[in-house]
From TrEMBL:
Pfam families assigned to the protein according to its UniProt record, in alphabetical order: Myb_DNA-binding (PF00249)
Domain (Myb-like): residue spans on this chain: 18-70, 71-121
Localization, UniProt: Nucleus
Full protein name: Transcription factor like
DNA sequence: AAGTATAACAACCGCCTTTGT
DNA sequence: CACAAAGGCGGTTGTTATACT
């Protein structure tokens, strides 16, 4: 029997179901078996692949393991600022179409993006005590979170430019950008040149936040609506008007979450309590 | 140091669509 | 055209690592 160029011993469906199928975490041996088999015969036809490779797994399980973990081009590690921005932007456009979103983040899987959304974005919605799909939260993302990400990417790019002069290899600049994006070491290992996204959004690198002239219509609006200078200071003692904030929300947590300050919170309170 | 809570990630499940017969 | 199998996708759950008390 030939399966996508493969020749293997046919097994009936009954025989397959009779065989005890393994479930749960994959072992190193299973990974090696799958990788070696795909290396020799290519991917696809997952059910027969699983059978022919001698893996006691469903075709679906093999496919998932390969696509989400074993593929050589799969990119692992922290989601960078640029990737976060792109995820937020694309999700606002397409919703939970994870695979579609993943197509725009090379090396990232739909599963990874989906997990990011659930663990990070929905966490923030929970902290704000609002639904992640609510207009309020979407506005918060669009008008506060995303601009903050842009600012941070710009700041990182500027820092990278400054130090690039002292770094000879081109790759060092990209590495430095990610390191500069945060004092945390977590970014250093995962590098995505900011220029990729600056091109995508076509915004100028400028440290003056108020001068950002976004070509993207959404970000133009962001700048109009959420110009930090337009925010008035929160009245003293006005912090618990219906919204409870974890201190990590603005004081701590990892660098990717640390995009908020008291003014943001006050502003959000005003918006959400309307 | 131990116990608990939370975050992050990997994997499975069910449904829908596509493809082959 | 109808049916079955396979593939793909989004939702959900389980496990492990890490942080916190």
């Amino acid at each position: 029997m030939e399966v996508g160029g493969r020749v293997c011993d046919p097994k009936t469906e009954e025989e397959t179901t009779m065989m005890d199928l393994r479930r749960g975490p994959w072992t190193v041996e299973e990974d090696l078996t799958l990788v070696n088999y795909i290396d020799k015969h290519g991917e696809g036809r997952w059910n027969s692949l699983a059978r022919c490779a001698g893996l006691k797994r469903t075709g679906k399980s093999c496919r998932l393991r390969w696509l989400n973990y074993l593929r050589p081009d799969v990119r692992r590690g922290n989601i960078t600022l640029e990737e976060q921005l792109l995820i937020l932007e694309l999700h606002s456009r397409w919703g939970n179409q994870w695979s579609k979103i993943a197509q725009h983040l090379p090396g990232r899987t739909d599963n990874e993006i989906k997990n990011y959304w659930r663990t990070r974005v929905q966490k923030h919605a929970k902290q704000l005590k609002c639904d992640v799909n609510s207009k309020q939260f979407k506005d918060t993302m669009r008008y506060l979170w995303m601009p903050r990400l842009v600012e941070r990417i710009q700041a990182a790019a500027a820092a990278a430019n400054t130090s690039t002069a002292q770094m000879s290899p081109p790759t060092a600049a990209a590495d430095n950008l990610s390191a500069a994006a945060s004092s945390s070491d977590s970014f250093a290992a995962q590098v995505s040149p900011a220029s990729d996204l600056t091109d995508y959004y076509n915004y100028p690198v400028n440290n003056n936040n108020n001068d950002i002239n976004y070509q993207n219509q959404d970000y133009y609006q962001v700048n109009q609506v959420f110009n930090p200078d337009s925010l008035t200071s929160p009245p003293s003692g006005s912090f618990n008007h219906g919204l409870e904030f974890n201190s990590q929300w603005f004081d701590g947590g990892d660098t990717t979450d640390n995009l908020w300050n008291s003014e943001d919170i006050w502003c959000l309170q005003q918006q959400f309590n309307m």
